[in-house]
C-alpha cells in the first residue's frame, strides 16, 4: 500500500467504508480501512492539496473527494471493537469535529445548520434542527440517486450511439457535462456526509457520557466491595475473639461488666485488656508541647504554651456515659418533685388553704342597698339639674 498513489489508496478505503456501512465487515478489514485512511491523511498533508484561504470553488473536482477522508475515518474508528471503548469514541469525535470545521471553512456547511446551532439548545430547537437535517439528508440522497440514474442512461445511450454511428462533433460537450456531473455528485456526497456527521457526533457524545457514568459506578462498586471485605474480616476476628473468650471464661474469674462504650471498642480492637481499670473519665486532649512527651504541666510557662495549640472547635467535657448518668439523675429528681406536688395537691389541708374566702349573704344584701340608694340620689340630682341648665347666660338670646 505504501507504493500506491493517493487515488488508489482512497478508492480502496472508500470501498471498505461502503462495505462496513452497508453490511458489516470483520475487524481486520475495518482496521485495514483505518490504516488506509490515515495514510491518505498523511499524503494529503504532504501534498498540500487544501489551503485555509480556499473555498469550495477553488478546489478542483478531482480533489473534492479527499475532503471526506476524516469523515470516513471517524465512522470506521467508531466500528472498531475493543474492551475500553471510550478512547475510540473520543478519537471518532475529534475526526468528526475536524471534518465539520474544515467544511465550515470551505463554506460547505449549509447556512441553516449554522443558524440553528447558534440559536439555542432547547428541546424545541433540537427537534427543529433534526427535522431540517433529515430533510436535507433525504434531498441529498435523492439527488445522488438521480445523478446515478442519469449517468447510467447516458452510458447506455452512448454505447448504443457508438454501435450505430461514429461519434462526431459535440464530444467535448459530453466530457464537460461529465465533469460538472462528477463535481455535483461529490458536493452532494459531502453535504450528505455533513448531515450524518452532526447526527453521529451527538450519538457518540451520549454514548461517551453513558459509558463514563457506568465506569464511575463500577469504580464506586469496587470501593464498596473492598470496604465490605474489610468489614467481613473484622467480623471474623470479632467472632474468633468471642469464641476464645468463651473458652477462657471456663477457667478464669469473670471480669466486671464493661459500661463504657469507648473502653469496649478499645477492648474489641485489641488496644486494651478487660482486666485494665477504667474510671469512665474523659479528659480534654492537650495539643501543646507537654503532650509530645505525655507529661504533666509542671510550670506556668508550659501551661500557657499548651493553650496556644488548641483546636478550632470545642472539646467534650464529659463522656457519653457521664452525660447519660447526669440525665438519669435529673429525670429522677424531676419525677420525685412531681410526685411530691401531686401528693400535696391531693391532701385535705392543701385544699382547705387554697380555698378562697367568698362574701356572705348579709354582706351582699348591704352592698345591694347602698347601690340602690346611690342610684336614687343620682336620679334626683338629674331631675333638679336638667341638662344644659347652667349655660343660659352663654346663649346669644338669653
Automatic annotation (TrEMBL):
GO molecular function, one term: protein phosphatase 2A binding
Pfam families to which the protein is assigned, alphabetical: TAP42
InterPro entries (alphabetical): TAP42/TAP46-like_sf, TAP46-like
Swiss-Prot/TrEMBL GO biological process terms: regulation of dephosphorylation; regulation of signal transduction; TOR signaling
GO annotations of cellular component type: cytosol
Biased composition (Acidic residues): 169-180, 361-370
Location of region: Disordered: 155-180, 346-398
Residue ranges, compositional bias (Basic and acidic residues): 371-386
Name this polypeptide is given: PP2A regulatory subunit TAP46
Organism: Cucumis melo (Muskmelon)
